[in-house]
Write a structure and sequence with these properties.
Blueprint: H1 2-12, E1 17-21, E2 24-27, H2 28-45, E3 49-53, H3 58-69, E4 73-76, H4 83-93, E5 97-100, E6 109-112, H5 113-118, E7 136-140, E8 150-154, H6 155-160, E9 172-175, H7 182-193, E10 197-199, H8 206-215, E11 220-223, H9 225-238, E12 246-249, H10 256-265, E13 270-277, E14 281-286, E15 293-294, E16 306-311, E17 314-319, E18 325-326, E19 341-350, E20 353-359, E21 364-366, E22 369-371, H11 373-378, E23 386-396, E24 400-409, H12 415-426, E25 437-440, E26 446-447, E27 450-451, H13 455-458
Helix pairs in contact: 2-3, 8-9
């Protein structure tokens, strides 16, 4: 399925840039040629399950196609995981071959990523395209609110979520997510189906991402609200050099303040926030400039590809195209008997809007009173000088947990002044919601630009 999308692009746009990276530019024909060369090598090794532990690169993208051509199951492993974590993950997934740029022993047969590049050349063997069952892709959830799970997807379900659009000659998408992240795979699929160009960055830093926007004439960027908050300081200085036409926010709840700031900075750009889940796929995109979801989504007919409902304050979704199962926990059922998935996202309805108040797993229990981090953060993020805040629960022997807050101050502001303003604003919160621990920090721990909130993850 995924390979057929590459051949479709090849027929109409063989010389169009598919991948642009700091190391060069690759057309659709270049990636197709490399994919066949890699497939030849994989055919001689013949592993049933492959893992890639390497940075995002044209070689990794060619490998994605090569594995699918052979019907192989491919797991994309976060390159930032430690050697011990990778070994444990590969063992859990029963991987026979890992392709990596690491020199460490990863506990199974290894093929250096460089050898794939060296194998590029004349086609020697014919990969048996279509002979095998449809290829699978294996991803790990982010683990920002719990232990990561191994998600198994069919490429057909991933591609079914893409909206086909009229190809644009100059549409350049920045890969601000990583390819091992569900949102990164979504972006890759969108670019492939719509015959656009995918731009890779030098590293996962925000500074490199903004530099790539300028250098490679990026028109479309999709990332988390946390990414955009970090990027604002860089974007102000270079906005005259940017060609942004489309901004997407996803993976976290987005605030009205952030939407407003982005619209002021890029008044001509279309700004969209997406609600998606690794288990369920892309569910809805909202472009009306308001946070949350319109309440009308609760009235969708049963024939709709995605349906929503709210039960006991939690958002539930039912989708036609989602994951196959949890590979590492096959008995764990994500959906109930009617196909509804409990998202773990807690919401409240205000007027004509469904507003997100936090993840169920992130709820802070202060002496029996439930406190939701997003509601506390929402009262603080629009304060002058506040770049980013993170609210989380810290264990306390008396009340179970207390509310803790980490504060990153915007450049050019006096930290103590901003901290004083935050403390004053906290006084307007309900007593149990007031942070008893406020810490000035230079940066916040993230996972693929999603904030980590649990105290154990912050150490």
């Amino acid at each position: 399925m995924i390979y057929s999308k590459l051949t479709a692009a090849l027929q109409n746009y063989p010389d169009k840039p598919f991948i642009i990276s700091p190391s060069g530019q690759w057309s659709y024909a270049d990636i197709h040629r490399n994919a066949w060369s890699i497939a030849n090598k994989l055919g001689r090794i013949n592993p049933s399950r492959i893992a890639a532990y390497m940075p995002d690169s044209p070689g990794l993208i060619a490998l994605v196609f090569s594995a699918a051509m052979h019907g192989r199951s491919l797991a994309l492993i976060n390159r930032e995981l430690s050697t011990g974590q990778v070994r444990a993950t590969l063992k859990k997934l029963r991987v026979q071959l890992v392709i990596s740029d690491s020199d460490e022993n990863l506990g199974c047969e290894q093929l250096p990523a460089g050898e794939l590049a060296e194998s590029a050349g004349a086609v020697e063997l014919a990969p048996q395209v279509g002979k095998f069952a449809e290829a699978e892709l294996i991803l790990l959830t982010s683990g920002t609110s719990g232990a990561p799970k191994c998600i198994r997807y069919l490429w057909s379900d991933l591609l079914a979520q893409v909206v086909k659009q009229t190809p644009s000659d100059d549409e350049h998408w920045l890969l601000a997510y990583r390819l091992n992240h569900f949102a990164g795979v979504q972006m890759f699929c969108h670019v492939l189906v719509n015959h656009s160009t995918l731009v890779l960055t030098e590293s996962s830093s925000v500074a490199d991402a903004v530099a790539a926007m300028v250098e490679y004439r990026v028109t479309h960027v999709s990332s988390t609200p946390t990414f955009w908050r970090f990027a604002l300081a860089f974007l102000v200085d270079v906005r005259s050099q940017l060609q942004l036409r489309h901004i997407t926010l996803g993976s976290e709840a987005v605030s009205e303040d952030l939407l407003r700031r982005l619209q002021e900075l890029f008044p001509c750009a279309r700004i969209v926030h997406i609600y998606a889940l690794t288990e369920a796929g892309s569910c809805i995109s909202v472009s009306d400039g308001k946070p949350g979801l319109p309440i009308a989504v609760l009235q969708r007919p049963t024939s709709a590809p995605v349906q929503f409902r709210v039960k006991a304050g939690e958002l539930l979704v039912k989708t036609r195209h989602g994951m196959t199962d949890y590979l590492d926990q096959p008995k764990l059922q994500a959906r109930d008997a009617q196909g509804w998935l409990a998202t773990g996202d807690l919401v409240k309805i205000e007027g004509e809007r469904i507003l997100f108040i936090g993840r169920r797993s992130e709820t802070i229990n202060v002496g029996g009173v439930k406190v939701h981090p997003l509601e506390v953060e929402g009262a603080l993020t629009s304060l002058p000088g506040v770049k980013l805040v993170r609210v989380y629960g810290r264990d306390n022997p008396v009340v179970g947990q207390i509310v803790a807050l980490d504060l990153v101050v915007d450049e050019g502001w006096e930290p103590k002044t901003v901290e004083a303003a935050v403390r004053e604003a906290c006084l307007s919160l309900p007593r149990h919601s007031r942070p008893l621990s406020i810490n000035l920090v230079n940066a916040l721990k993230t996972n693929n630009f999603k904030l980590a909130r649990r105290e154990a993850e912050l150490l």
